Amino acid sequence: STSVIVQLTTSDLNKLKKLTKNNVCVNTFSCYVQITTAFAKDIAGNKVVAVASSTVFPPNAMAADVVSDSFGPIGQQLYLNLLSGLINITFDEPVQLPTSTLGVDVAAIVSTASNTSATQSQTLKGGTQLRLSADWMMVSLVLPASDILAIEAQDSLAKSAASSFMSLFGVFVSDVAGNQNAEMPSLQGSLVANLTAIPCVSYTPDTSVPTLAQFSSLDVNLGIVTIKFSKAMNLSTLNAHLFTLQSGQNASGSTVVTYTLQALSASAYTDTSTKQQITLTLSQMDLQSIKLSNGLATGLTTSWISMKAGAIFDMVGNAVAETVNTSALRAQSYTQSALPQLNSFAFDRNSGLVTMNFSGVVNVASLAVAQLSLQSTSSGGLRYTMQSSTSSSSNGFSIVLRLSSQDLNAVKKIRGLATSINTTFISLTAEFIADVSGSAVLAIVPTAAQQAAYFVADTTRPQLVAFNFSLDPALLILSFSETVDLQTLATQYITLQDATLATAYQTILAGASYTPTDADTVVTVSLPAGTSNAIKALAALCRNRSTTFLTLTNATITDMSANAIVTIADGAGLQAVSYSG
């Protein structure tokens, strides 16, 4: 053939492209060929005439046509070092840098070769110095700490070579002909289709050890500890048992109070884009213990934190370094407890217990029950102020008030008060109780009383616990275990007899008068004349205490919650406490 096609190797082509920077082969007038006689022979074996090197090439050595390079450079390989932050990217041809620094929204580290819904990415922030290799085939840059932090904060991004790719979607480089780099992965309408992101062929993980950088804040009102680390941390690896609050920087001091956390109510990132700062919401048990630890976390000067190694791991799996308890970090911000307030209460009418839950840790020694009232509506209604109830609870967020017999029976005596959750409200003054720091509880005024959150009805049946008898005048004084509804008293179900098991007896006739007549724990019954005369006619009945016993049926009376009295059967008669003839 009279024509020979020479296919340049990639290496030769790239070297030629590099020369175009010096105006070699940019057009026909700058592109000449030089050959030696060894280049080719004709079919007769004659060597080709050489085109020798000279200052001026002959016209036949000039290119008849030059096709310019119209395709941008394509990224080939990514070398990623997260420990040093160094990134190297190789291309398929010599490149040049449009600027000396990385532009904004130009490149990103991505987790997959192609964009999917599961792809995680971090766009590089720009401004980083770019460097070009001697052969113009590789670009290097060092990631700033902020980019490394943002990359490591993501769960599935750049955790190995398999999840590390580089995406180009802006002008990162151009070739020597001025064509900007191809978009990788290819976008719809891209000049070069079906390109994926640049794969990572060399990966170095970040093995640097994270540290606790700052004790950002302590809020003892809400029970929130905020801490900041040097790196992105994996919240799921946090171990609360390895964190200790202390009242001074050096826990070896004899006056320094310490408390190691036991449990958390919650933990969360304050910024998921960096995962450096974490909030720890203390459990109520821990917050209570801290507030009960005299001198701990009472202000900035008594709020320090230390931490064992491995208390949490970073997103790469490196354990956090120890913050020793002899060099603890002090809180940068402190929020003190607000005034304690009653959050909720439960009323147990059956056992006479009031369980009160406060927003702060209260001091039971400061309890003043006379400052607490029960009322039947939120705005007032029926009302009773406590007199003698007590609490044996320890200091804490919750205390149990045990109503005295005096107070419980007085409450039961008031019809319509604390008979259900709808008629059980509390009001209290600021003098009712204080927290352990001496702050008085927030008052609950009678016109805006707080309703019970939980109510237990009275299901215990009342009992006759004692009675006194007088023959003349004929009186029967009955004492009950709790307040009874005297409006339900039916004396005809009461029997007086001579012994535990009767041989002589007399049932009280209906229509006996008694006082009081509404509700009480004690009632005096005046025996009808017919009953009194019948007793006197029986020589063996009610002649002294030894011959004065009583039985009754469960129809005799009910308590204020309609529970029938416990029966006293014949054979188990109740003896009189006192007798008057």
List the helices and strands and how they pair.
Elements: H1 10-19, E1 75-81, E2 86-91, E3 95-96, E4 107-110, E5 121-123, E6 130-132, E7 138-142, H2 145-152, E8 165-168, E9 174-175, E10 198-204, E11 212-219, E12 224-229, E13 233-234, E14 243-246, E15 258-260, E16 264-269, E17 277-282, H3 284-292, E18 304-307, E19 313-314, E20 329-330, E21 334-335, E22 342-348, E23 353-363, E24 372-377, E25 380-385, E26 396-402, H4 405-413, E27 425-428, E28 434-435, E29 450-451, E30 454-456, E31 464-470, E32 475-485, E33 494-497, E34 505-507, E35 513-515, E36 519-526, H5 529-536, E37 549-552, E38 558-559, E39 574-575, E40 578-580
Parallel strand pairs: 1-10, 11-21, 22-30, 31-40
Antiparallel strand pairs: 1-2, 2-7, 3-9, 4-5, 4-8, 6-7, 8-10, 11-12, 12-17, 13-19, 14-15, 14-18, 16-17, 18-20, 22-23, 23-26, 23-28, 24-25, 24-27, 27-29, 31-32, 32-36, 32-38, 33-34, 33-37, 35-36, 37-39
Descriptive account of the structure:
The structure is a single chain. It contains five helices and 40 strands. By secondary structure, it is mainly β. The strands form nine sheets. An eight-stranded mixed beta sheet has the order 5-4-8-10-1-2-7-6, with helices on one face. Strands 31, 32, 35, 36, 38 and 40 form a six-stranded mixed beta sheet that branches. Strand 22 (342-348) and strand 23 (353-363) form a beta hairpin.
